[in-house]
Amino acid sequence: MEQRDSWKWQVRKSIRSTGELKEYLHLDSREECGIKLAEAEFSWHITPYYASLIDPDDRNCPIRLQAVPQEKELHDNSGVMDPLEEEKHNPAPNIIKVYPDRIAWTISNICPVLCRHCLRKRMVGREHFDFSGEAQKAALEYIARTPEIRDVLLTGGDPLMYPDEFIDEILARLRTIRHVEIVRIGSRTPCTLPQRITEKLCRILKKYHPLWLNTQFNHPKELTEEARIACERLANAGIPLGNQSVLLRGINDDPQVMKALVQGLVRFRVRPYYIYQAQTLKGTSHFITPVEKGIEIIQSLRGYTTGFSVPVYLLDTPYGKVPMNPETIVQRDAGAVYLKTWDGKIWREPNRRE
Ligand code: SF4
């Protein structure tokens, strides 16, 4: 019989009603009503594991805010459903192409937890998603006939929500295309369903190197023993791990929280890679922070923790990702640039332009 530490048990026992949710946290009648109103527009479910991380008495618990719907999602007319205009960059079914040499292939619309801030809530957890044999074939044919594609990101939804055999098959098919040099997987399972990272899955993944995996931890509360074991298994399978956090108001928009997060990630052998500015996305405006907050966080990390623990703060746009660096170049003149160091000193670097 499947147990709590089995990923299939976690998926089968996903929390989908306020009645089940009340086993994990206290809900007053207003909050319960808010969830019921919001779920008509934006669906939700939560793994028992992730729900168990919620502080039952804290309405502002960072896990709760990421996973439990709130009525305020409905009172947000400021955003759009596809802020990156991904649906305009579809040369083949479920393929998103923004850059010359790489693509994202959204192979799933299922996730362990439907994050309230999800960029792809237009498709994740919704029914209209075609990943039929024909759609897969057309996508693979597109990749095969497009030699400039050297890097394929498998994303979704979450690609690791498929059974092992399916993941094995998709990776094997990709590996028959000679110009595909690297495969990347985007998966939040190490954070929201770490039970998914089994030894068997890792044995499959390691057959297809070079293979990279980026995940999404947003708060130190997510750095549990289960998550550590999942990351360790992946790292031991030779898979380089990166983390892509989203900067979220009330969750991680705090230098101390981010410092604890990035330092914990490095202990887990995960490199903090990006901090994304939250998008102007329908139903999520309550999460958006000012840009100055992201800059403040990066400044609070640079020099104060290990260099490779400092992620790049950036904004994703329909034209690609744009780093938003703190103001390190304070001045330029004909012969030099003046750079502000991490502790506020000014360094003059000659700038020869011949
Ligand atoms: S894991 Fe990623 S794709 Fe899935 S719901 Fe969360 S943010 Fe969206």
Give a topology summary.
Layout: H1 7-12, H2 18-21, H3 29-39, H4 48-51, H5 62-67, E1 95-96, E2 102-106, H6 133-144, E3 151-155, H7 164-175, E4 182-186, H8 189-192, H9 199-205, E5 211-215, H10 225-236, E6 241-247, H11 255-267, E7 271-277, H12 291-301, E8 312-317, E9 320-323, E10 329-332, E11 336-340, E12 346-350
Parallel strand pairs: 2-3, 3-4, 4-5, 5-6, 6-7, 7-8
Antiparallel strand pairs: 1-2, 8-9, 10-11, 11-12
Helix pairs in contact: 7-9
Bound molecules: iron/sulfur cluster (SF4).
The site of iron/sulfur cluster has 10 residues, from loops.
Please explain how this structure is put together.
The chain is 29% helix and 17% strand. The strands form two sheets. Strands 1-2-3-4-5-6-7-8-9 form a nine-stranded mixed β-sheet. It has a three-stranded antiparallel β-sheet with strand order 10-11-12, with no helix packed on it. The chain has three domains: 7-73, no CATH class; 86-323, Alpha-Beta Barrel (TIM Barrel); 326-354, no CATH class. The radius of gyration is 21 Å and the shape is globular. It contains twelve helices and twelve strands. The chain has helices at residues 7-12, 18-21, 29-39, 48-51, 62-67, 133-144, 164-175, 189-192, 199-205, 225-236, 255-267, 291-301; strands at residues 95-96, 102-106, 151-155, 182-186, 211-215, 241-247, 271-277, 312-317, 320-323, 329-332, 336-340, 346-350. It is an alpha/beta fold and 354 residues long. A hairpin with a 5-residue loop joins strand 11 (336-340) and strand 12. Bound molecules: iron/sulfur cluster. Iron/sulfur cluster binds next to loops.
